[in-house]
Amino acid sequence: MVSSTRLEDVPISGKPKKRSTGIVGLNLLLDGGFPTGTTIMIYGTALSGVDIAAKQFWKVEGEEGTYIMNDGDVDVGMFDATDIHPEMYLPQMAGGRIVIDSLSMIVIKYGIEEALKFLSLARQEIRKRGANMLYIVYTGVHTPVEMTRLMRAADVVIELNSETHQNEIERTLSVHKIKDAAAPSRMLPFIITDTGIEASTTSRVV
Q: Is residue 9 included in any domain, yes or no?
């Protein structure tokens, strides 16, 4: 498989190509999607929808991807990495859409240094191929220092948050970091439906 060259990855306009996030509202917020060749950290609680967002990114039609599952039930098409050391993930990472579910489990089982070593190697491969890798990190299971180091290792950092107000659950998505670009200054409201996450860049979720 021939790797894309830097010239091929950058259109005449000089702007890097974008890869759809799988969420329409987030695509609009990011002016088209994730810049190709970047790694994305998405974090939140186990109930915030981070796994749903990861699957939507992986399942965008028309492009091959790899979902590496080490932290839950393995669905059809996913790679079962339950008992595999992260250094063995790299040969399995085919296509342009790579998901690691979850990086938290790598930290828990192998330690923060092994997790960061994996991210460093994976990042080189992702950049070389012009792919994207999204990895899930769960809040409440890592020390503040570990969270900081994981965020620094990512090109894009996204937080999914949910708060209960009386009888309603308010869910918001925040993009805290984008490599070589200004992060959006507003949160994106979203809802979780039977088909996945639906988000809007307007004040109401439609």
A: no
Residue 7 identity? L
CATH code of 104's domain: 3.40.50.300
Q: Which two tokens stand for residue 84?
A: 């595999």
Domains identified in the chain, total number: 1
Domain assignment of residue 152, yes or no: yes
Q: How far apart are CA 33 and CA 28, in angstroms?
A: 7
Strands across the sheet containing 188-193: 79-80, 65-69, 97-101, 132-138, 39-44, 156-165, 168-178, 188-193, 196-199
77 Ramachandran zone, left/alpha/beta (phi>0; psi -120 to 50): left
Counting residues of the chain whose pLDDT is more than 90, the rounded percentage is 81
Mean pLDDT to the nearest integer, 52-78: 95
pLDDT in tens, 154-180: 999 999 999 988 889 999 999 999 988
78 domain residue, yes or no: yes
**Cis-peptide, bond into residue 162, ω within 30° of zero:** no
Is pTM, for the whole model, over 0.85? yes
* Domain encompassing residue 142: 32-199
- The per-residue pLDDT for 21 is 97
